[in-house]
Structure formats: C-alpha cells, structure tokens
Amino acid sequence: MVGYSDSKQDQLRRLRRIEGQVRGLQRMVEGDKYCIDVLTQVSAATSALQSVAISLLEDHLAHCVAEAAAQGGPEAQAKVKEASDAIARLVRS
After folding, report:
1. 65, exposed or middle or buried, with CB in 10 Å at 0-12, 13-18, 19+?
2. Mean pLDDT of 50-54
C-alpha cells in the first residue's frame, strides 16, 4: 500500500486541476496573450505542482519511512536515503 492511498482522490483532483491550468497556458500562448500574464499562470501551475509534491512527500514520510524506521535495519536506512534524495530534488527544482 502506498503512503498516499488515503488521499489518492484528493491528489487526483489536484492534478486534474493543474492539467487544466497547463491547457489554459497553451491557449494563452496560442492566443498571443501578454507575456507577464502567461508567466503569472506558469508560476501558479508551478506552485500547485510543488504543493502536490510536498503533500506526497509528507505522506511518504508518515507512512513508508515511518514504517521502515520502526522495523529498523538496512530497509530503514534505504527509505531515509530515498526520502532525503527526494527532498534534495524538490529543493533544486
């Protein structure tokens, strides 16, 4: 079972909303909308994706990492490293 199982429908709703934002961006570019308006919407879509990423990370830490840590051993170390790498990727993006 994945960590986000309990919030899966919420995550899907959020991703569909973001998908709509991106389609709106495509229409804005096709319609030659003002650059700053397009950039504002890109920023909004980026923030929305980051919010989904943080939520998924929180679920991962609360479920997958916490469960592995409770069991201990190499699996726990691997899960912590995996989470640390994911956080590093989010910080760089």
Report:
1. buried
2. 95
